Amino acid sequence: MSYTKRFDGRKFDEARKMTAEVGVIPNADGSAKFSFGDTIAIAAVYGPKTLHPQHMQNPQTGILRCNYDMLSFSVSERKKPGPNRRSQEISKIIEWALSPTLDLEEFPNTVVDVHIMIIQANASTRCAGINAAAMALAQAGVPMKDLVSSISIGKLDKQLVVDVSKEEEDYKEGEGATDMAMTFLSNSQNLVALQLDGKIPPATLKEAIKLGKEATKKVHELQVRALKEFLEKKH
Amino acid sequence: MEPMENQDMEVDHDKKRSIAIPGEIIKTGKEYLPGDGTRREGDSIVSSRFGLQDEFGRFIRVIPLSGVYIPRKGNLVIGKVMDITFNGWIIDIGGPYSSFLMINEYPKYIESDDLDSYIAIGDLVLCKVFRTKRKGVDLTMKSRGLGKIDDGMIIQINSNKVPRVIGKEGSMINLIKDSTKCDITVGQNGVIWIKGNSVEDELFAKKAILFVVERSYIQGLTDAVKKYLDEEKGAKK
Q1: CB-CB: which of B21, B97, B216 is closest to A138?
Q2: What is the reported pLDDT for B6?
Q3: Under CATH, to which class is B153-236 assigned?
Q4: What is the least distance, in Å, from the CA of A164 to any CA of chain B?
Q5: Rounded to an integer, what is the distance from CA A79 to the centroid of its chain?
Q6: What is the pTM of this model?
């Protein structure tokens, strides 16, 4: 049987309910929270600040350093705290996804630290993390060329879906589940990061990217609204 | 006390402004020029910071409201001594780079093996930024009113709120000074030194400053602060 109806009754091109909030961590230079349904990510940004160890400093530009972590209570089976292979890989991916937006040439030898914590996980955590980090970087006053928005696109059997949930990620029937986390620059709509877990024919991949582009527009709208609300709240 | 140095950040806060988001097109047209926090992309002026849009003649700029302190030449700052080297002090004034106060920028001549008897590690100092280099900031203490701080109270606010605390030509800070009878020095890095006759006065001034910081986006703030100060004073008596 093919995947004709989604487990939670969403439309195929419908993301879960998204929420966004800026300024959730008072001690950080910038912070934000982003959620896709039950997946909640918070991001904190510190810097630009002098980079230690010194040998990592780049005299031409500041660098970005990301740290992604799932908190031990974020999943149903307790996760052993601390970095692991998966979180290190995702940290690097997020770094690559965010660095095209930043313009740190004004701050040579410095680092901007981005800490992304997943406080509740139900698939698409890295997408939620990237979305939160983009808002947090903006609030931190770091010079940016653009914002980024991220979404996961899934292929369950032969059906493409937007914003995969954990239940869908584990779909086994037919061709099984393929999931792609994709990140776009908000204005130019350029693809800055794409990860693919599973199998997909080239033509479908193109279609998936088109679907992702469309879906991230809504994410970007929400990010902009959250940033504006943060300032307007104080007006 | 020292005159407040806030010319580079002089902003009219009682003007309604729209918000700029990074990557957002603020204005389109060849006649506009990109100022701080913006850049040109084709015909348009695009924001590269998160803050408030401001038009200044043909210039378009974005006023940031959050983020770390960026030192500028001439800024009055309050910092903490972190380390002592053979020819000066390393001072933390916040911001991305460390800053250095050289021995010959101290108001009088001192022997280089005698540095810590004048200013020791952990002391707070009021200095002025006299040079910003690629990899740091140089400070000076050779000006009236500068020096080590050894009494009063220190509070820290976000450096982007400093222009608001000072107000237009110092209107806000003078109001608070007069009302609380405290001497207040606002460092451009967001560190504020309050010195009053009693701790109660100092705490009152602190409360008033935090009142300003929390409401730094509302219009007609000076009047609100005036009312607040009068009410608080009335409640005390």
Answers
A1: B21
A2: 42
A3: alpha beta
A4: 28
A5: 20
A6: 0.90
- Cβ contacts (< 8 Å) between A109 and chain B: which residues? 97, 135
Q: What is the ipTM of this complex?
A: 0.87
- Which of the four pLDDT bands, split at 50, 70 and 90, describes residue B12? low
Task: Give the right CATH number for B76-149 from 2.40.50.100, 1.10.3470.10, 3.30.420.40, 2.40.50.140.
Answer: 2.40.50.140
B76-149 and B153-236 in the same fold: no
- Report domain extents, chain B: 7-64, 76-149, 153-236
**Chain A to chain B Cβ contacts (< 8 Å):** 81
- Topology at the third CATH level for domain B7-64: OB fold (Dihydrolipoamide Acetyltransferase, E2P) (2.40.50)
CB within 8 Å: A140 and B66: yes
Residue B5: the pLDDT is 41
Binary contact (B217, A235; C-beta < 8 A)? yes
Residue B99 has pLDDT above 70, yes or no: yes
- Per-residue confidence (pLDDT) for residue B157, from 0 to 100: 93
Residue B15 is predicted with a pLDDT of: 63
Note whether A136 contacts B: Cβ–Cβ < 8 A. no
Residue of B52, B54, B61, B66 to mutate, interface with A, max A Cβ within 10 Å: B66
3-state secondary structure A32-88: EEEEECCEEEEEEEEEEEECCCHHHCCCCCCEEEEEEEECCCCCCCCCCCCCCHHHH
pLDDT over 90 at B138, yes or no: yes
Number of separate domains in chain A: 1
Residue B194 near residue B149 (C-beta atoms within 8 A): no
B61-85 confidence digits (pLDDT tens): 998 888 889 899 999 999 999 999 9
Q: Is B156 on the interface with A (CB under 8 A)?
A: no
Q: Are B53 and B47 in contact (CB under 8 A)?
A: yes
Q: State whether A141 and B19 contact (CB < 8 Å).
A: no
Amino acid at A53: P
